[in-house]
Amino acid sequence: MEWFKIYNPKAMNSFQFIAVTGIIMSALAHLLLHLWGKEIASFNYLYLCWSVLFVFGSIQNLRHNPEEDDHHHHHHH
């Protein structure tokens, strides 16, 4: 298992990247609404969705075998 793929942005796949971006955007929106005194309970579901997406992306990423698309090694004919 290459766990660096979970926290290293360069190794993240698109699912993880979208999830992280979504969480950041949601957190910023949540903060702004909090400052305006608006409390929205559904934000918790939003974070849950992003978390699920991130976990899904992480599983896909960890299951992906880098050797499959490594074209540098020599094939035996």
What would you say this structure looks like, in words?
The protein has helices at residues 4-7, 14-35, 43-63. It is mainly alpha-helical. The chain has a domain at 13-61.
Structural class: mainly alpha
Report the count of strand segments. Answer: 0
Distance between the termini: 30 Å
What is the number of helices? Answer: 3
How would you state the average pLDDT, rounded?
A: 82
What is the element string, with H for helices and E for strands?
HHH
Using only C-alpha atoms, the radius of gyration works out to 18 Å
Largest sheet: none
Strand content: under 5%
- Indicate the low-confidence ranges by residue numbers: none
Helical coverage, percent range: 55-70%
- Identify the overall geometry: elongated
List the SSEs and their pairings.
Layout: H1 4-7, H2 14-35, H3 43-63
Helix pairs in contact: 2-3
Keywords: Membrane, Transmembrane, Transmembrane helix
Transmembrane segments: 15-33, 45-62
Essential attributes:
single chain; 0% strand; mainly alpha; membrane; elongated; 77 residues; 61% helix; transmembrane; transmembrane helix
Provide a compact summary of the structure.
The model has no long low-confidence stretch (mean pLDDT 82). The protein has helices spanning 4-7, 14-35, 43-63. It is built from three helices and no strands.
